[in-house]
Design brief:
heterodimer, A: mainly alpha, Cytochrome Bc1 Complex, Chain D, domain 2, three-stranded antiparallel β-sheet, 5% strand, B: mainly alpha, Cytochrome Bc1 Complex, Chain C, two-stranded antiparallel ribbon, 16 helices
Amino acid sequence: MYRPILAALVAASLTTVTAFAAGEHDTPVPPRQKWSFSGPFGHFDRGQLQRGFKVYREVCATCHGLNLLSFRNLSALGYSEAQVKQIASEYKVQDGPNDQGEMFERPGRPADRFPPPATWKNEAQARMLYSGTVPPDMSVIAKARTYERGFPWFIFDMFTQYQEQGPDYLVALLTGYEEKPPAGVTLPGTLQYNKYFPGHGIAMPPPLSNDRVTYEDGTPQTTEQLAKDVTAFLMWAAEPHLETRKRIGFQVMVFLIVFAGLMYFTKKKVWASAH
Amino acid sequence: MSGHSTYQPQHPFMKWMEARLPIAGLVYSSFVAYPTPRNLNYWWTFGGILTFMLAVQIITGIVLAMHYTPHVDHAFNSVEHIMRDVNFGWLLRYLHANGASMFFLAAYIHMFRGMYYGSYKEPREVLWILGVILLLLMIATGFMGYVLPWGQMSFWAATVITNLFSAIPGVGEPIVTWLWGGYAVGNPTLNRFYSLHYLLPFVIAGVVGLHIWALHVVGQNNPAGVEPKSDKDTVAFTPYATIKDGFLMVCFLILYAWFVFYMPNYMGHADNYIPANPSVTPMHIVPEWYYLPFYAILRAIPSKLGGVMALGASIFILALLPWLDTSRVRSARYRPLYRQFFWIFVAVCLGLGWLGAKPAEGGYVIAARVLTLYYFAHFIIILPVLGFIEKTKPLPNSISESILAPKSAGTMS
């Protein structure tokens, strides 16, 4: 009596689980990348950030804003004060109104925010131009994207400190385009097929390709490399105090562990008299 | 806070003060001379940890409020301003956001400890009910705090949760409009949530005062579940309990710092770094982890009103626990059957938590229904019946005897 019921229950639960698994996994898991900023001693690679900034500036900035960042923040990328001034002055920034009540354009200064992309004036226009979507601002995008880790991985992540799902997803997305959608899949309008994008139809055409950006430091200019560099730059943009956070974290940890040890032995001594 | 103070002021000023406002005597009798059972284990240190976490949340919160702008057009960017431009603003915000998680973690451990050792039983019913009220206040405060950054999850959590009130027959819709301060979640909603998020922690602090007061009237329960009978059964709060609480608090801080400094967004949701957008609904609207079991119960019921009632009942039923548990024995140490059901209940709560994060479809819904049913059955069937049928182990005559006796297997201590 008892066995068949149990067997039926197990079979039923197994079929539901596999049915779910099939539904969830038609989007592949983004491959794990090696990041200099991962782990407890993580730090940004200044050269990579500068390359990534170049990619942002020459490719992404056409459509994507970076409205939470100012030019002065770029000094964290290893640029000198003069270089930051120079970079800022290469941008046109709207200012005003002046004495005549007119808005005017002037070269940027370090205190200015990055100007919005020039290709679209407002969201309505962006929707008209880009298949009904608005190119998202990129200031915190490295923290605003992720993929689901699922059980039991999310528990292991707590111990391994794996939290670069966002950057890994971004690299996968930037390199995950396919020229033709797989057989049987048709995408509406001008949407492109991307393996990693939820739903696969993405309005952004493949932004990167080999040699799309010229590096001055001799780093290979492959799509993959460009994607990694710009993602590292975006991680810095999203979490500019990451290095300070991890550095202070280590000091706090050392302090707390020593403190806990002292507390433990004090506690033992105090309680020795109570027994 | 009870009985006569044994505090004898030495300094002339303290004597003068004690005759006018005996606050030093109150502190002395409550936190120095106060007798605590000598067999308390580390599960008893979470009350102190919770008080500490409340202080952390209030202090970091007050400073964050100095830099935050409660307006739908500025809230998201003002939080980013804190993260980028305010000196150590990132630290304050991560301490506060992860502090909420740590607060709930400690509260849940504290509650499960109370359940395991029967700390809610006579004469501690009011103490327990005050704890349930504290949980309710924490839930409300945490929810409103989550709305303040005005990201996608903030906005949609606010929409989903306030909409629950529309399930109330007849007056539901007007109540929701009144809660929103408009016909949709908007600026008035954000403003009142901010106001209440600032207010409620002080209400919590007040109820914590009552909770501690009630505790000091009835005294602490202990792992043996028998009341202290002589001086041999207790030790002074200071230094014994203080140092023990202090040690575990530092260990707890290590866990807290691990998240704050190394994975500050682990317990958050990526979607909340996307500014709120009323015209785009996120694929899955998921609350913070500490609400997931309740969220699973809410969604397990097919009708909206039923779900809301089950959600409310799942918390309210905790307040009835002192009367639903019919056993005369407090501690699960001496209740072999209850001990097993306790751990099943813990597993059910964790299972509900996992299901709360899953989409409400297919097998997940069925599992959530089974576990919801069990959650309530634990309180209305298992606990009342156990008291009558369970054969409990003999209780020790005193706390000191329980320490000297060989430890029974499988206890939490």
